[in-house]
Write a structure and sequence with these properties.
By secondary structure, this protein is of the alpha/beta class. It has two domains: about 280 residues, Aminopeptidase, CATH 3.40.630.10; about 110 residues, Alpha-Beta Plaits. It is built from twelve helices and 15 strands. The longest helix is centred in the C-terminal third of the chain and has 20 residues. The two termini are about 25 Å apart. The mean pLDDT is about 95. Bound molecules: glyoxylic acid and manganese (II) ion (3 copies). One manganese (II) ion (MN) binds next to loops. It comes from Actinomadura soli. Keywords: Hydrolase, Metal-binding, Zinc. InterPro entries: Amidase_Cbmase, Bact_exopeptidase_dim_dom, Peptidase_M20.
Length: about 400
Amino acid sequence: MSFEEMWAALLPVGRDEATGGYHRFAWTPPELECRAWFLDEARRRDLDVEHDPNGNMIAWWLPEDGSRGDAVLTGSHLDSVPGGGAFDGPLGIVSAFAAVDLLRERGAGPRRPIGIAAFAEEEGARFGVACLGSRLLAGAIDPARARGLTDADGHTFAEVMHNAGFDPEAIGPDDDLLGRVGCLVELHVEQGRALREPVGVASAIVPHGRWRFDFAGEGNHAGTTRLPDRRDPMLPFAAMVIAAREAAERNGTVATVGKVRVVPGGVNAIASSVTGWLDARGPEDKAVRRTVAEIDEAARVAARPHRVSVDLAEESYSEIVDFNHALRDRIGATLGGVPVLPTGAGHDAGVLSARLPTAMLFVRNPTGVSHAPAEYAEPADCLAGVEALTAVLDELACS
Ligand code: GLV
Ligand code: MN
Ligand code: MN
Ligand code: MN
């Protein structure tokens, strides 16, 4: 299967024809179809598939001597955000299979194992914590907390893992697997307007996190409840959304409320509770923390006159990632003068940088749009990405 054929096979999976957006949430039918596709592609190439206890999959191309240590890992993720683009995640995996094909065509064989990883629940779109599979693998989240995470229907991560054939008690750090990996190079579509050439190398991921604001008031009738009698949680929620924009402007950060749950959600009912999820990111930790503190304060001030309670919970936080300099320099030397750029997007390579030397290759995105259907990469740039990844794997694992 060529790059184009693999891409064409994945393209319809989980796609909403009306919007062109993808809905591939961890362990839902479209994501399971992507996993089956991954296993087929691995089988087609005679790669050994390893399933770790956390739902991550790795397709291994082993050296002739069968050695398993000091591996070079590549790959990305197959899940998507709600209504996401086609490239975020799958591009790294399709490119990795295509790179293995090119290495074989060119007669190169690995002296270190090459692993193509598909990390589970990278977007956190189902259970709320981004990069859940790599966080568990790296020991960056308490397994007990992960087991108790719930999806929108109230199913726990433990339940879903059990139904998918995993032992929920076994999730957590896999030091045996990590001990066999020497480095990780993740290829990914660039997610903003920062890359002007076909391929670039990542320097850093900015600090970012997710917070949940719960506003609790009193459900009541929209027609019969006098204004002074209302305890409407929608009002401080709305103030919180505006405060997020203003705090981001003051602090040089970005802050987004992209998801809200209104209970019970009737047109003719004052909500009893509103939950809003805040995503905040910025160039440095302090500015992000200050942004969230200011939004929290504004939400509380706005809630008081309405006798609404406010509860703030941090769902995940990732400190700045400064990708491994030696690996980045070696990749830069291999590719010869490609741009080096930071990103505001989170990645499994960022989470795993706490345990391994990691690096990322970016492929240009001409629309500058991501996490939305307009996300794009030109076919020629995708092929440039495959060539770059091939050269990097050749350099790190074959020569
Ligand atoms: C994941 O892609 C994120 O950056 O939120
Ligand atoms: Mn993403
Ligand atoms: Mn991604
Ligand atoms: Mn991401």
